[in-house]
């Protein structure tokens, strides 16, 4: 089997598991599994999670190395699989419901309990430092209620690109605050046309 899609289809058939079931187990859409099975994807951020659910070798699934059956002598404890969420752009975040997961190339395992609509973003700039630094990955859940003090992703003023700020609610007024104390104009008014694209529920800092 020459590609990831062929190996995944073979594993699903061998384990008698439907694509929908696998998608549910790792917390992604069935469309994402269909895309992997199509053979168009050379790699996936889901291979480790898929391998654990199907009880197969991750090296075999991802690279075609060795046999499909896992090495039982060196197998790791069967910890709960963390579901992965798609890493998207700030423009896509403003129109998340229109995005097809088949177009996403990178996924990150989210350690927090989250809805299936959760996605990841890479922080750009220093407006939210030192709490969130440039390059940090944040996990955003659109189904979590935005409250006073929540860190939110918002699109407003007709912009296609979303922004990341802390929500401040003062009576009937709402504001967006940059956490960086040295940021110019650290507090701006949340406009009537503002769309909250989700609440940040966690983050991950790369250590490279």
Detailed description of the structure:
The protein is 22% helix and 22% strand. The chain has six helices and nine strands; from the N terminus they run H-H-H-H-H-E-H-E-E-E-E-E-E-E-E. The chain has helices spanning 4-15, 19-26, 30-37, 47-54, 58-63, 90-93, and strands at 84-86, 107-109, 119-122, 137-141, 151-155, 163-170, 173-177, 187-189, 195-204. It has a seven-stranded antiparallel sheet with strand order 3-4-9-5-6-7-8, with no helix packed on it. Strands 1-2 form a two-stranded antiparallel sheet. Strand 6 and strand 7 (173-177) form a beta hairpin.
The low-confidence runs, each spanning 5 or more residues with pLDDT under 50, are: none
Count of helical regions: 6
CATH architecture assignment name of the largest domain: Ribbon
The CA-CA distance between the termini, in Å, is 34 Å
Which class of secondary structure composition applies to the elements?
alpha+beta
Biggest sheet overview: 7 strands, antiparallel
How are the strands ordered across the major sheet?
Answer: 3-4-9-5-6-7-8
CATH domain class of the largest domain: Mainly Beta
Q: What keywords describe this structure?
A:
single chain, 208 residues, alpha+beta, 434 Repressor (Amino-terminal Domain), Umud Fragment, subunit A, 2 domains, seven-stranded antiparallel β-sheet, 6 helices, 9 strands, elongated
Précis, in short:
This protein is an alpha+beta fold and 208 residues long.
Topology:
Blueprint: H1 4-15, H2 19-26, H3 30-37, H4 47-54, H5 58-63, E1 84-86, H6 90-93, E2 107-109, E3 119-122, E4 137-141, E5 151-155, E6 163-170, E7 173-177, E8 187-189, E9 195-204
Antiparallel strand pairs: 1-2, 3-4, 4-9, 5-6, 5-9, 6-7, 7-8
Helix pairs in contact: 2-3
